[in-house]
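As agreed, record minuted below.
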Amino acid sequence: MDAVIRWIATLLLAVLTGFGSALWLTGWTPLDPPGLFRAIEINGWTSDPAIGSPAAGPYMRAYVARRGLLGLRREEAAYFLRATDDDGEALREDCAYVLEGRAPAARWWSVTLYADDYFLARNDDAAHSIDASRAVFAGDGKWRATIQSDNPGDGSQWISSREAGRFDLLYRLYMADSAVLETPETALDVPTVIRLGCRGEATP
C-alpha cells in the first residue's frame, strides 16, 4: 500500500510540476520565464531574433501567442519589450513618464502600451500608442510622448496608462534595415523612459 501511495504522489508531483512549468514558460503566471524574449538587451529593451522564425521553440511560440504579438517574420518586423523605466523600476499606472526617441532605420515603427493582462489598457482614451505617422519631432531630432493615466492637456503626444496597472511597452520596427536586424545593440537607438513622478510620492 505504501508503494502505491508513493507512486501516486510521485505521479501527481510530476503532473503538477509539468503543468506549472508549462504555464510559467508560456507566460500564464505573474513571473516572466527566464531566457524568453531576452536574447538581446539594449538599455532596458529586450528582444529575441527567434520570434517569427523557424528557430522559435514551442515555449517561445506559446509565449508570443499569449502576449498577442502575432510574430511576423524577422525580416518584416522586430519586437522590443520594456517593463521598467530608466531607473529599473516597474512601469506603473500611478506614475508619469516621458518616452523619448529618434526615428529608427525602419519603414515604420510604433510604441504601444499593454496592460498587466497583456491587452490594451481597458479605457476609452484612444491613446494606446505613438507611431511613425503621428510622432512630432523637435529641433533636436527627437520625438516625445507623455505616458500617464490622465491627459496632460497641453497638446503633447500622450499614451494613456489608465486602467493598465503594471504595464509593458512594445517597440515594433517594420521592415528595419539589415544593420538593425543583425546588430541592433550598435545600430538601434532605442527610446528612453524617464519617470517624472508617482502619485503619493513625497516631493524632494
Remarks:
- The two ends are 67 Å apart (CA to CA).
- Residues 25 and 33 are 5 Å apart (CA to CA).
- Strands lie at 40-42, 45-47, 77-82, 95-101, 106-114, 129-131, 143-148, 158-160, 168-176, 192-198.
